C-alpha cells in the first residue's frame, strides 16, 4: 500500500514538472512572438530612407534634380533628422536631401544633386546616410508649409543632428495684367523661388527645382498660391508665347493682392501684330 502511494506521489511530481516545463515553453514562445511583433511594429514606426525620391506627386513638367553618382552609406556618417510642428513630432513627413555643389559657370546657379530621400517615423525622426559636405534639407508634410535648412556635415563617422520645424503656410493672390493697358493677361506662367540661404543672403534665390512653386494664372489673369512657408520669395512671371521673364520680390505672409504687369506679348521686337481679316463683303469686291 505504502509503495503504491509513493509511486503515485512520484508520478504526480513528474507530471507537475512536465506541466511546468510545457507552460514555460509556451510562455517563452508567446514572449518571442510578442517581441517579434513589437520589433515589426518598431520597424514600421521608424523612419525609412531610400536612395531616390518618390516623384509620383510631382507634375511631369517639373525638372528633376540629378542624383549623386554614388550613394552614401552609414560608414560615411548619418544625419539625425527630426521634424516637428508646434513642438510635436510629425510622422510620415517627406524629407529630401540635396548636396550643394559649386555654381555653374554658364548659368551662375548652384549645381544641386539629390543625395537622399525618405519619410519620418512615428517619432518624427529619420536617420539618413550622408557624406561630408554642404547640404540643403527639405521637409514636406500635409497641412503644413515646407521647411528648409542648410547644414554642413563633417567628416565621416559623425552623426549630425538636424531639426526642421513646420508651420502653417501663408498664401499669395493677385492678377497678371498687360503692362500699360492693365487688361487681364491669362495663361501667364508663374514660378515662386524661396530665399533659403543664410550663407548667401544677398545672392539670387536658388533652390532645387522640386522646392519651387509653379503655377499659371487663369483666363482672367487671377492666380492663387497656398501653403507657402514664411519668408522672401522671388516671383518670376512670363506671358504666354514669350520668353521674356519679369521678376518681383514678395514677403510671405501678406494680405495684399499683387498686380503683376507683364509686357504685351504682341509688342515684342521683330513680331508684327496680326492683321484683322477683311470682311466677306470686301473680299467679294476685290
From TrEMBL:
It holds the Pfam family CarboxypepD_reg. One of its GO terms (molecular function) is carbohydrate binding. Keywords: Carboxypeptidase, Hydrolase, Protease. Coiled coil: none annotated. It comes from the Bacteria. Gene3D superfamilies: Carboxypeptidase-like, regulatory domain (2.60.40.1120). The keyword Signal does not apply. Residues 264-286 are annotated as: Disordered. InterPro entries: Carb-bd-like_fold. This is Carboxypeptidase regulatory-like domain-containing protein.
